[in-house]
Design brief:
two-stranded antiparallel sheet, 3 helices, globular
Amino acid sequence: MATNRKHQEVVEVSGQTEHLLTECESRTKFAKCPRCSEAHEKTELDRYVTEKICEPLAEGMARCPLCETQILANDESWKSHLMGHNGCPLNPRKGGKKSKLPVKDKKGPGAAGKQVPRQTRGKKGVKGR
C-alpha cells in the first residue's frame, strides 16, 4: 500500500512518517511529535502538542497515518490493517470501495463523523459521486 503526500513521490503507508521526517523534499516543514511520534507540519506542532490532540503511541505499536488507528508494528499487521476485510476505512485502494464508517481523522474525507461515500462502477461509469 502506497500513498502520495501532495507531490509525485509514492511512499508505503507504513513508512510515511519516516519518509516525511528524513527523505521527503519537504522534510524541513515536518517535525516528530513528542507525544505520538508521528510527523506533523512544524507550523501546527506546538498547537497539536499543547492541546493534546494526539494520543501517545503504545510500545511495540505503529499508527496508521490514514486513519490514526494503532496497530502492531510488523508487516503482517500492516497488511491486515490495510487490506483486510475490516481494515483501514480510509484506504483508497481497498477493493476500489470506500468505507461508510465514520473515522476520527480530522483532515480526511471522514472528518467530523461524516460518512465516506461508497463508489460502485456501473455499465455507464462511476455511480455514487
